[in-house]
Write a structure and sequence with these properties.
The chain is an alpha+beta fold. The protein has three helices and five strands, in the order H-H-H-E-E-E-E-E. It has helices at residues 3-26, 29-44, 68-77; strands at residues 83-91, 94-102, 107-118, 121-122, 128-132. Strand 1 and strand 2 form a beta hairpin. Helix 1 (3-26) packs antiparallel against helix 2.
């Protein structure tokens, strides 16, 4: 595992821990559980190549075809000063993860990643994205 992959793995572990902790501390257990489930499902696909037919397919600065971890790394790296949020929702075998960053008065960037889940696993062929700069 190279240094950037190790750093990304640590960041994701920290995000999962913080999402769980924040949900318990604020009493928003269902929202935290959905966010954790959606993020965990995507992380389980992190090594998989994004299908060319997916609206998530693109250039994320990677070598070779884009993988789910390239998408997540770029979207999570956009989080900086301002208000940042990661919110997940799962219902009826469908999940979405919304990552937003605003500078105070308006959204600066956002990404919504949608996918279906079968037997507790995300379906890579269902991966779809709506991203704004």
């Amino acid at each position: 595992m190279n240094a950037s992959a190790c750093g990304l793995a640590r960041l994701f572990a920290l995000l999962l821990a913080s999402c769980t902790f924040c949900g318990v501390a604020s009493g928003v257990d269902d929202a935290a559980a959905d966010t954790t489930m959606a993020l965990r499902s995507l992380l389980m696909l992190s090594h998989r190549t994004i299908p060319k037919s997916s609206s998530c397919f693109g250039d994320y600065g990677q070598r070779g075809p884009p993988k789910v971890n390239d998408l997540l790394a770029v979207q999570l790296s956009n989080l900086s000063a301002g208000h940042n949020a990661i919110r997940g929702a799962c219902a009826h075998q469908r999940c979405s993860l919304r990552i937003t960053h605003d500078g105070g008065s308006e959204d600066v960037s956002s990404a919504e990643i949608r996918f279906t889940v079968n037997a507790g696993r995300a379906n890579i062929s269902s991966l779809q994205c709506v991203m704004t700069p």
